[in-house]
Amino acid sequence: MKDIFIHKNAILGNNICIGNGVTIEEDVWIGNNTQIGNHVSILRGSRIGENCQIHSSAVLGGIPQDLKYKDEYTLLEIGDNNIIREFVTINKGTISKGKTHIGNSNLIMSNAHIGHDCVIGNNAIIGFSVGMAGEVVVQDWANISGLTAIHQFSVIGEHAMVSGLSRVVKDIPPYIIVAHEPLRFTGLNTVGLKRRGFVSAKIDELRAIYRVLFQEKRNTKFALELIENEF
Q1: pLDDT tens digits, residue range 60-86?
Q2: Percentage of the chain surpassing pLDDT 70?
Q3: 134 is catalytic
């Protein structure tokens, strides 16, 4: 191993594999069995769980790209079993929420950027070169395809799928596929739901709910009342 810097106050678990040119600053915690590739930088305030794979040249816990950040103490929290591919950047939080949080078992593909104060759930897929502005929420099992740009404060619902090259400037409801420009509902994420073990009856119910919401052109308040009463 060459040119590795590990601050004396960093806390590292057992059986951690560290590549060449790695920097691990003070006030960093890394869990057991995590693999860290070449030239990775893990910066102050980062908390990384167990069994993670962090590939070459990723930068974790960088200073937020937000003018309101004034060097206050904030964190980046990353759970267990995450795969973080090459050149991914994940910024820590600002005074707004105090931390950026990544759950468990997510795949974050190469060149993706996750901005300050974002919240990523569990089992999400963040595609190649996805750009995620600050305070975005991505719920469990969401799948965001490559080269998608996501506006700050957007929420992407659980089990939703966002097609590649999308421009997300509004919230995405759960369970659906969105595509086109401007972004719009194109159907239920049936394949994804079947893979997750949703039974046919539940998928049919979800399809009926979204027909009321998106296809029958009803007043939204009336549509929500109808869904609550009928389903």
Answers
A1: 999 999 999 999 999 999 999 999 999
A2: 100
A3: yes
Strand ranges (E), 74-215: 75-78, 83-84, 89-91, 99-102, 107-108, 113-114, 119-120, 125-126, 131-132, 137-138, 143-144, 149-150, 155-156, 161-162, 167-168, 176-179, 184-188
Q: Which of 93, 117, 127, 192 is catalytic?
A: 117
State the burial class of residue 68 (Cβ atoms within 10 Å of its Cβ: 0-12, 13-18, 19+).
Answer: exposed
Q: What is the pLDDT of residues 171-219, one digit of tens each?
A: 999 999 999 999 999 999 999 999 999 999 999 999 999 999 888 877 8
Residue 149: count of CB within 10 angstroms of its CB? 15
Catalytic residue among 134, 140, 159, 192: 134
Q: Which residue of the set 55, 101, 116, 159 is catalytic?
A: 116
Say whether 117 is catalytic: yes
pTM confidence score: 0.96
Q: Which string of DSSP letters, residue by residue, matches 29-67? A: EE-TT-EE-TT-EE-TTEEE-SS-EE-TT-EEEEPPS-T
Is 159 an active-site residue?
Answer: no
